[in-house]
Amino acid sequence: MGRRHGIRNSNSFAQKKRNQKHKQKDVWDPAKARMNYVDTVRESEGFSTYYKKQNVCPENEWEQMMATLKETLPTSFRITGSKMEASAMLDVIEGQFFKELLPTGVDTGTDIKPPKQLPWYPDRLAWQLDISRKDIRRSEEYYRLHNFLIAETSTGNISRQEAVSMIPPLVLDVKPHHKVLDMCAAPGSKTAQLIEMLHADQQPGDPPPEGFVIANDMDNMRCYMLVHQLKRLSSPCVVIVNHDASQLPNMQIPGQDGNPTPLKFDRILCDVPCTGDGTLRKNPDIWEKWNAANGNNLHGIQYRVARRGLELLAVGGRMVYSTCSLNPIENEAVLHRILKECEGSVELEDASASLPGLQFKQGMTTWTPCSKDLIGYEKYEDVPEQWRTQVRPSMFPPAKEDASKYNLDRCIRILPHLQNTGGFFVAVLNKVKTLPWEARPKTTEQSSDSGEINEATEVNSANSPPVKKRRTDEAESTEQNVNSDETKEVSDEVKPPKGNPKKNPKSRGYKEDPFVFFSESEELWPVLQEAYDLKSELSCTSFLTRCAVGKKKNIYFTTPALRDLIKNNEQRIKIINTGVKAFARCDNKAMKCCFRLAQEGLKCIESFIGPKRRIRVDKDDLVLLLTCQDPSCPPEIEKYSAPTQEALNRLEDHGSFVVEFEGKTSFGRQLVTTLVGWKGTRSVRAYVGVDECVHTLRLLGEDVSKYEVNKFKNRAENKESELAKINEESKQETDQKEENENDTVEDKATVTNDHENGNP
Ligand SMILES: C[S@@+](CC[C@H](N)C(=O)[O-])C[C@H]1O[C@@H](n2cnc3c(N)ncnc32)[C@H](O)[C@@H]1O
After folding, report:
1. CB contact set of 270 (below 8 Å; sequence gap of 6+)
2. Same-domain status, 332 and 293
3. Quick check: pTM over 0.80?
4. Cα 231 to middle of ligand 1, angstroms
5. Which numbered atom of ligand 1 lies nearest the CA of 304?
């Protein structure tokens, strides 16, 4: 029987073949993909009719705009980090990387244009490549560029971001002491920029800045994209919260006298959910879905979010309103409605001077609200009853004689053809006085600020201008039309906490572990202080864990300002994440302290770590440390230079310590860096991820080619070996089959013989 099974198992061979065929089907076929790409119909009659009616683009540029909208979007990125780090990176990118990887004027037989520096971004730190992200990802000729972009993004040294999306944080002009709110922050490319601006002046060894960023998003899952995106920056100055921005609760911070005082922000980014038709080049599926109702349906939530932003803004503060939509209903109409209600307490600013070389169109002072059937209306009275829930009175432009009051022409609209980008809209608002409804006396109910988390809390509702409860059409469209432009980048890696989400994850989501700050009497503190020679200026109350009881796993660090904010408001705000891992549990018998230093948090606390637990190395020793990627065989202590060996011997215990380096990059620029080292019995290694090692080695001018992975070559090799494996298996199966068949014949012969011998 067994042998017969063997014969029948030849089906498994067929199954394998079927699987193989199936796999081959899944293999990316560039020609096929290009066909699909081309197949997407990149036009919409409704879109053309609507925007021609709005005069969004001068007639003589219309064809050019439409042609550009049909092309794929170039890739752009920013160089990030402190000024010193960014300049060092720029040297490598301009001086070496572009030359090696991309044809800069040299005819290489391809039609790729040289990288273009974005003139309006300061210090030559933003670049555009005339290749789409998809092409970079999918063609072998760019595999090194792709590796570079991925690795340097993961270490937070560059940020891949659509060019126009870099503008709102730039014009927001964030300073290190600012309290900043990002109202609709996920997936977080602009938040990252805001955080970088907060840290811009920080030199190695400086304490973190005083200011902070509160990054909010209503969608719980997208909050975890934010967590992922912002983790790369290792900033102790950011907290991620999960609220409907139009109802963000009032928060309190300690005032100068120590008593709680209402938190008002210096800077607010209001990058609202929108139809995203400015991203058509990147998201061609929007062509098919485009209709005039989408913008109309979002106007309400856009207005409510912006209005709440202005309430939370300090007098003298600045708010940037932006969308990646070209539609005046989502842009100028929202601002007009707000400016009208603010009665001069908020002014639009012309921010174009801070964006030298940017090509844009001034904001529109008039437009034509349309219903879904693309009929336009001069005034609300003309709107037929059936469309009155969609086309609202507030959407109409100011009367001609009033138009100059609002300075809507100070808004900035970027059309795709102007400099080969996506479409975008941005406006800068300055709050010059308290809002009219803030100045009105509060009711007793409103003066109580101690509300627990309550999604339905109407904030400042009694004094606010009358706003009808959110209509169903608006609610639905907000959720469906949320611009998904930057979602795809990180979606694979979103890791919300394990466990079942509650029924409506968008608004409620997962229950987060608590944020438990150390008290002055934390018993672990003296152990950490002793182990890492921590200076007394470092207060233990800025550290927190995520477990109320039991063994502490990781210890996170936040700035004192954020700690105060969280402690004062944890009952009213839903916190998703904060803090940078500074210490990680490491129950190693050789260590007196059961926590090691964590690389992520080193920058935050290294200035407080005393000489007992730090050593300085020269370039050769640093390279030795960084080039060892095999933790099972780290370089032995005797391989390091004599001074490093001496310093290592002076370290009292095994375990983690700070490695300092001060030297020059391959371009002669000063480089100061610190990393976590680990001293074992006989060896020493760096506790640093491979991408970070490669980054530093690159800056030092070391050869990093051994880290280059050519996935195309690997895939081809794998395919070959898989084919060889299948051939081998198939040969074995055939042999087996033949053997079985022979056996069967033999069996039969035996049976015959047995019969002949009279056996059963
Ligand atoms: C245009 S995207 C923001 C992009 C983001 N600023 C960036 O640069 O990466 C709009 C975001 O608003 C969020 N959102 C939608 N309605 C919201 C609301 N009522 N309150 C807060 N966030 C909201 C969406 O989940 C989405 O993540």
Report:
1. 183, 184, 245, 305, 306, 309, 319, 320, 321, 322
2. yes
3. yes
4. 19
5. 19
